[in-house]
Specification:
Structural class: mainly alpha
Distance between the termini: 39 Å
Strand content: under 5%
Number of strands: 0
Order of helices and strands: HHHH
Radius of gyration: 21 Å
Number of helices: 4
Largest sheet: none
Length: 106
């Protein structure tokens, strides 16, 4: 009986550590997205837009398209981590409060 309890607790610890690892990776992805969005490289005045070369405009479009593709992939990862958090909380994980707080940080 004790062995079963210890095994169950070790499995919960393993699941918690995997969740925290994945959540940290998501935090990094979101930070990178915030960093990209905070760059002010889009001309906001007609004069600045007129100085933009066609090559620079095409490059900006490619960067934006790449960002959108990456954001879509990241969204799937983030939703997966949130789903894992929900599953752990529903399974009465001993750290359910910590897991829920971490998932709600997003």
């Amino acid at each position: 009986m004790l062995r079963l309890a210890v095994t169950a607790r070790l499995l919960q610890n393993l699941h918690l550590q995997a969740f925290l690892r994945d959540a940290r990776q998501c935090e990094i992805l979101l930070s990178e997205q915030d960093n990209f969005l905070s760059k002010d490289e889009i001309p906001t005045t007609p004069g600045a837009a007129a100085r933009l070369t066609p090559e620079a405009a095409e490059n900006s479009i490619r960067q934006l398209e790449s960002f959108i593709s990456t954001m879509d992939a990241n969204d799937e990862k983030i939703n997966g981590v949130v789903g894992t958090a929900d599953d752990l909380v529903k399974s009465n994980h001993y750290a359910a409060d910590k897991i829920r707080r971490k998932a709600d940080e997003r």
